[in-house]
């Protein structure tokens, strides 16, 4: 049972755009983390902490304020690395999905991988939406099987046979009508000959 090839250019384009967005997001997060690490050691940042956070009346002691600052810094770093890891996994899954799209028989597998890539890229981010659309296209656009084409050919042949049979029946009716007309003509001429009186020579 042979299958016709389906052009998967749309799915590939959406997957490539999603991968590019993932790479840009990884670069932006990495740049933000590096910038924050560089800013932490500057005197301006230390002055900002002393003026804004250390003097905040919500903290009873400066040590408590310093503890909160350290927790915020470490949590920012951890969240950044977690986001980078998720985006890297999403990018890898999208690349594997693109590889599977080269084979038409693995379009469903590529759709599943695109869904997983969208989940790792964020549930409702722009990148995840692109991956979801590509997955839907992988599931919906399926190649037609050779059997379906054969069935259509058989239906067309059946219709042709029906038309031929109708034409043959019409021709037969025409020939029968002609024969009946000829027989009637012969009968009328025979009767006319019989009605003429006999004249002796």
Distance between the termini: 90 Å
Helical percent range?
A: over 70%
Q: Which oligomeric form is depicted?
A: single chain
| Total number of helices | 6
Count of structural domains: 2
Along the chain, the helix and strand elements come as HHHHHH
Tell me what portion of residues adopts beta-strand conformation.
under 5%
Q: What overall form do the CA principal axes indicate?
A: rod-shaped
Low-confidence stretches: none
Helix and strand content put the structural class at mainly alpha
Give the C-alpha Rg: 42 Å
Structure summary, number of beta strands: 0
Largest sheet: none
Average pLDDT rating: 79
Describe the structure in your own words:
The protein is an all-alpha fold and 201 residues long. The protein has 2 domains: 132 residues; 50 residues. Helix content is 81%, strand content 0%. It is rod-shaped and about 140 Å long. The mean pLDDT is 79. This is Membrane protein. Keywords: Membrane, Transmembrane, Transmembrane helix. InterPro entries: DUF4064 (IPR025273).
Sequence-ordered SSE layout with sheet pairings:
Blueprint: H1 9-40, H2 43-54, H3 62-101, H4 107-120, H5 126-140, H6 146-195
Helix pairs in contact: 1-3, 1-5, 3-4, 4-5
